[in-house]
Design brief:
The protein is built from 28 helices and two strands. By secondary structure, the protein is mainly α. The protein has a two-stranded antiparallel ribbon with strand order 1-2. Helix 18 packs across helix 27. The longest helix is centred in the N-terminal third of the chain and has 41 residues. The radius of gyration is 26 Å and the shape is globular. About 5% of the residues have low confidence.
């Protein structure tokens, strides 16, 4: 049983089944060159993350968030090298799924294929929601210019779940209130749905169904337009930062009044990990197009790495422009940061604000296109292996695309748009992508090294026998130097218990009750806790003029020191360091290569920032996938039937 679960697939077998014929044979059309692949990579990376989550990243980390962009880019670069190594050896559709099949075995291949649904399909739900936000904003601005009413009703441009959750949290957002109060009703049910998100999903699905050549041309045009507008933002915004003397915003004062590039410290910078990482999601989508590349062994690695470098430079420049134009604190809750800096209260350039909204619509359309192309090809590969029904590998006779899988992808993206919201989708997507990255980098460690072949990508082998253990020792020493009690704190959960003791007293329904507020304050004063955070909290509550403000302070404190998240982070870091020690020992024994080791390490570290709810949802999703695998895939697998 165990041997069957971890049965691997020979690379030669994968190549023969993947139709590695350069003329296409009976498989997919090979029409993409290096420029096309680079553009696809840029189309996927430079999209929803840069146009929406960048504001959150800047608010948390200040100007210093550029450091996190560099750190994350390095982590992605290590991963890109590993993707490139696999792509040069296995130039067929399937991406990380196919690579896992060749290295870890069938069970891990299924798990990673199932997890990638969260990156490509479910991730596209978030992009569709963001696209809708910018598109409706664009229509409003266009209506103002043309003196026409182009406004989409709020109840037809928001998701029901998002509106309901916002109202439950006490939101006073006029758009949310309008959507709820003005929504038409059928049988007591309010009809609230995001029509633009649904429409763009249908259009993208149709375009991908028609063929990769049409999608390529459309994507290339959008990428050129997107790069031109982003370049204009950097030039105009950068010029105004210097001409208006706003460079002082790059060294804003911290809470103590000291000017600092990282006003919230490195901890504040690291709080932006999820936002920054989401900005990079998508570069791996290029590897899914291996079977449609003219020269995948040469062009795939180049296109992937080149797109990553280009986008990293763009992100750094954009971040510097944003934090120079406006004080980083003003980006709280800003979902359209690139247009925000040109609003009246900031740089005050109306035509740039309009142009950016157009660019955002274009940018996220290209992201939708690339991700919608990726998912069907993964399902096609899984079907070839017998893990999914044969209909998923059906290729359209005329368009030469995986037709059935493309339609199913459109449904998987479209239907949940009616029942979910952006926050849930964003968390779900990030953890699945990092999980895939870890397996790809780890897979390179398990496959035998190949001889260098001219004209193909060759991952440099650097014996990490002594280097990697020294890196781990050095990282541990640095952490201990920067924080003397770093490792001791990870084992100490007493602070979380203290926070639990008073956050439990915060009322859920009656937030304005004086008795609870007095009880909470009395508890804190009586304990006279030596922790500086508690002392500051007590002092702030004593200075508050009324019960409502004291409750607000306590609630904010409880949110800041969320004990569930803190425990999860501590446990994640303990597991991380144990894994690093284990990897270091294995490296000494097996002479592993440094680049994939660094890919595994950096991606595992980013995973330590995921919350408990992320892990619970991810675990539940994998459990459902495993049930399906044992009900169908395990029995129908070609490796199983051939053996029998």
């Amino acid at each position: 049983m165990a041997n069957s679960l971890f049965r691997t697939k020979k690379i030669s077998t994968i190549l023969s089944e993947g139709s590695d014929d350069p003329h296409g044979g009976g498989g997919l059309k090979r029409v993409l060159n290096m420029r096309d692949l680079t553009f696809f990579g840029i189309a996927a990376i430079l999209g929803a993350g840069s146009f929406s989550s960048l504001g959150s990243a800047v608010f948390n980390g200040g100007p210093g968030v550029v450091i996190l962009f560099v750190i994350t880019a390095i982590a992605c670069a290590f991963t890109a090298f590993c993707y490139s190594e696999f792509a040069s050896r296995i130039p067929v559709a399937g991406s990380a799924y196919t690579y896992a099949y060749a290295s870890f075995g069938e069970l891990f291949a299924w798990v990673i294929g199932w997890a990638l649904i969260m990156e490509y399909s479910i991730g596209n739900i978030y992009v569709a929601f963001s696209w809708s936000d910018y598109f409706t904003s664009f229509l409003d601005k266009l209506g103002e210019i043309m003196h026409m009413n182009l406004h989409v009703p709020d109840y037809f441009s928001n998701s029901y779940v998002e509106v309901k959750n916002a109202l439950k949290a006490g939101s006073t957002n006029p758009e949310i209130l309008s959507a709820w109060n003005q929504a038409p009703m059928i049988g007591g049910l309010r009809i609230i749905l995001d029509i633009p998100a649904l429409v763009i999903n249908i259009l993208i699905t149709y375009l991908v169904y028609r063929g990769v050549k049409e999608s390529r041309n459309f994507s290339n045009i959008m990428v050129i337009l997107k790069l031109a507008v982003v370049g204009l933002i950097i030039l105009v915004g950068g010029y105004l930062v210097f001409s208006t003397g706003s460079t002082h915003n790059w060294l804003p004062p911290d809470d103590t009044g000291v000017k600092n590039f990282m006003p919230n410290g490195f901890g504040g910078v690291m709080m932006a990990v999820s936002s920054v990482f989401f900005a990079y999601i998508g570069f791996d989508a290029v590897s899914v197009l291996a079977e449609e590349s003219k020269n995948p062994q040469r062009d795939l690695p180049r296109g992937m790495i080149l797109s990553l470098i280009i986008c990293t430079v763009i992100y750094i420049l954009l971040t510097l422009v944003l934090t120079g134009a406006v004080n980083y604190r003003n980006f709280e809750g800003v979902g359209d940061p690139l247009s925000f800096i040109f609003e009246k209260q900031n740089l005050n350039i109306g035509w740039m604000q309009f142009l950016v909204s157009v660019c955002a619509v274009v940018a996220m359309t290209s992201v939708l296109l690339v991700f919608q192309m990726g998912q069907p090809r993964i399902w096609m590969s899984m079907s070839r292996d017998g893990l999914l029904p044969p209909v998923f590998q059906k290729i359209h006779a005329k368009f030469k695309t995986p037709s059935f899988a493309t339609i199913v992808t459109g449904l998987v993206v479209g239907i949940p748009i009616l029942f979910t919201d952006k926050t849930f989708v964003l968390d779900f997507t990030s953890i699945a992508t990092l999980f895939a990255f870890v397996l790809v980098c780890g897979g390179v460690l398990l496959i035998p090294r190949k001889e260098k072949i001219p004209g193909k990508f060759n991952l440099p082998y650097i014996n990490a026998k002594f280097i990697f253990p020294l890196i781990i020792i050095g990282a541990g020493a640095l952490a201990s130097t920067l924080s003397k009690n770093y490792f001791a704190d990870k084992m100490d959960f007493s602070f979380e218990k203290k926070v639990d003791a008073f956050t439990d007293m915060i009322p859920v329904a009656n937030m304005d009750t004086i008795s609870t507020s007095a009880k909470l304050e009395e508890y804190l004063v009586a304990k006279n806790d030596p922790d500086s955070a508690f002392i500051q909290l007590t002092a702030a509550m004593k200075a508050s003029p009324d019960a409502a403000s004291r409750i607000s302070i306590a609630t904010d404190f409880g949110s800041k020191y969320n004990t569930t998240q803190s425990r999860t982070t501590k446990i994640s870091l303990i597991i991380f360091w144990l894994l690093m020690i284990g990897l270091a020992i294995l490296t000494v024994i097996k002479n592993y290569s440094l680049i994939p080791l660094m890919g595994v390490s950096t991606c595992l570290y980013l995973l330590t920032g995921m919350s408990l709810s992320n892990w619970l949802w991810f675990g539940s999703w994998l459990l459902v996938g495993l049930v399906l695998y044992f009900l169908y895939g395990f029995r129908k697998s070609k490796l199983n039937t051939q053996k029998g």
